[in-house]
Every structure is written in structure tokens, then in C-alpha cells.
Amino acid sequence: MPMMASQMERSAGNYSAGPSRLPDPVRSMVAEDVLDLDGSGIGCLEHSHRGEVFDQVLSQTESLTRSVFNVPSEYSVLFLQGGATQQFGLIPMNFAGTGASSHTNTGVWTTKAIRAAEQFGPTTIVFDGAEDQFRSLPNPTNLEISEEASFLHTCANNTVMGTQWTNLPSSPKDVPHICDMSSEIGSRVLNWDTLDMLYAGCQKNLGVAGTVLVVIKNNLLARSQAPTPFNYQEHAAAGSRLNTPPTFGIVVLRRMLEWIQEHGGVQSMALRAQQRAQLLYEAIESTQGFWQPHASTESRSVMNITWHGPTPEAESQFLSRADALGLSGLKGHRSVGGLRASVYNAADESACEKLAELIQSSPRFSK
């Protein structure tokens, strides 16, 4: 008979790129919510999405979103289904105009977003990192974005390549900047002056798969032109209940936002992310070239640390050693190979120290 969850040891060393680790307090609260949501006597999986109890959950989650991310009043908050990849199609479906959409191609996800946008109108690539194997990002002030562009699309952090914009690009006046923040939402203090819309799949930093957070400026929302049920404005008018929303995911998102708030907010999350990343990058560099980071120094992600070894055999041996220590999810994305540690907001610091020690010891057992 399989062991119950209470009998099994909790693994702190989960480095999966998503779905990713949840904080222990969040797991406990969500477990209670599944059985009894907010003292209602009915579990969150069974509640009507239009009932009074879920009304409160939705209201609290929006309020927390606005508080945690300091969302200005002229933005709407939406909780949608389908994952961030679905937004690749919904964005041009809603906002493609007479001008070409502008894109920065910084890796796998932006490549997919560009392909989706091409189905709805002309596109312009203002930066393409493919020639450099997506190892680096440009100075955002050097991007040439047409004032006639229908929108600018970027991805703040690339989970596959391990690159991240230190400062997000800005778009010309009247050109909306739309940013995929799936893998770093909650770990960066946001400058709303440079953002007209952000969207994020919640399964990395904010909860579970199947839930998407969208924050969108109202004057952009008014431009939505897609048919029902793909129209952002219609979703906003219906209070994220144009159809049945991802109720369980919203319940988890509420708990994650409470946890972020209780642990110092986004500023604290950003500092912890920098410290964890520095620990791991320094460990990699200490091996004097045995392990090599994929991303260039100035573009390195603090969310997804990517590196490779001298041979596939060395990488395989590393993974075996890591598994023996309870460190999982370290195999690189299939399109890149190598190794990857995803250290999202819930990453355990002691497990990161254990991983750093393993990285530093690797040359001795792999040569």
C-alpha cells in the first residue's frame, strides 16, 4: 500500500522548471481548502464559481494581486485558463492592428509567440538572439521599435536558456508593451510605466498549472477585438467569470500571494532570488571551466540557472549524484540539454547550498 503524504519525507530539492515547488505553509493551507474552504464546510473543488464563498475568494485574490504587485487603479486584473502559451494567440487576436507587431526573440517562448502573431498580421523582429544560441540580451534602449507598431511583445525571463532582462524594454508612446512574466512574476519589483499588459502562467512562482494571471491597462483593454470567448474586455466585464474560471488555481494563487506578502513582499523575494542565484553561479565559476554557464554574464537569469559540462557523461553522472542527494528536476530542457536549476520564490535555501556544494565537488569525481 502506498505511503500517505504525511508519512513521506518532503523533498526540499525540487528544481523543476514548472510546475514547481510550493512553500510548505501554502501546501498545508491549500490542503485544508480542498476539504473545507474558508469554514464553509465545502471543499474548494466543489464550490460554485458564482457562489458567495467563491465571490470572496475572487475578491481577496484580486485585492492581494493589486497590493503585492502595486497595480495602479487604471489596470484590470484577470484570472484566466489555458496557460501562457494560449496568450500567444489571444494577444494578436485582440490587438493586431494596421501596423506590424514588434517582437524580441529571446528563446523558445518568444519564438512560439512570434509564430502565433504571424497568423493575425505582419510582425517585425527587433531583436533575434538565435544566432548567439540565445545566450545574451541586448541593451533595451538600443531596440528600434516603430511608432506605428500595433504592440511590442517581450518575455522577461527565458526558462530554457536561462536569460533575463535586467531592465525591461520600453515602447514608444501609444505602442503597448505586453510582457510574458510567467517565470519571474513575484520576484521583480515592477515598473508600471513600461508595462501595458503582463501575463503569467501561475505554475512557477504563483501556484499551479492551468491558471493565468493577466494585468492589463484599461485603455488597451478597450481595444480588444477578438470574438467571445477570447476577448479580454469581455472577460474583464464578467469579472473573470465569462466562463467557469480555474477555481482551484485561484484558491492556490490567493495563498501564494498571502505567503509573498507575509514574507516581505516582492522586494524580499527579489533579494532572495539574487542571493540564491549568486550562490549557484559562483559555485559554477569556481570549477574553473569544468562547468560552463549557458547565458552570458550580463544576461543571466536569477530564476533559471543553466549550465553544461564537458561531456554528456559528466552531466549524467552529476544527475545521478544529485538524485542520490534528493535534488531533482536538474536536467536541462530537451532543446538545449545540459543542466538547469529553477530557483523560483519557493526554492529552499538549504537545498541550494547542497546543490552548490555538489557543483563545486563535481570535477573531482567526473574527471
Quick structural overview:
By secondary structure, the chain is α/β, with parallel strands linked by helices.
How would you describe the overall organization of this protein?
- By secondary structure, this protein is an alpha/beta fold.
- The longest helix is centred in the last third of the chain and has 21 residues, at 265-285.
- The chain is built from 10 helices and 14 strands.
- The strands form 4 sheets. Strands 2-10-9-8-5-3-4 form a 7-stranded mixed sheet, sandwiched between helices.
- It folds into 2 domains: 25-262, Aspartate Aminotransferase, domain 2 (3-Layer(aba) Sandwich), CATH 3.40.640; 265-366, Aspartate Aminotransferase, domain 1, CATH 3.90.1150.
- The termini are far apart.
- It has helices spanning 24-35, 52-68, 84-95, 108-117, 218-221, 232-237, 247-262, 265-285, 312-324, 349-366, and strands spanning 13-14, 75-81, 101-105, 123-128, 152-155, 157-158, 163-164, 177-180, 197-201, 211-217, 292-293, 304-308, 327-328, 339-342.
- Helix 2 (52-68) packs across helix 7 and helix 9 packs across helix 10 (349-366).
- Helices cover 35% and strands 16% of the residues.
Features:
disordered N terminus; Aspartate Aminotransferase, domain 2; 3-stranded antiparallel sheet; 7-stranded mixed sheet; Aspartate Aminotransferase, domain 1; 2 domains; 367 residues; globular; alpha/beta
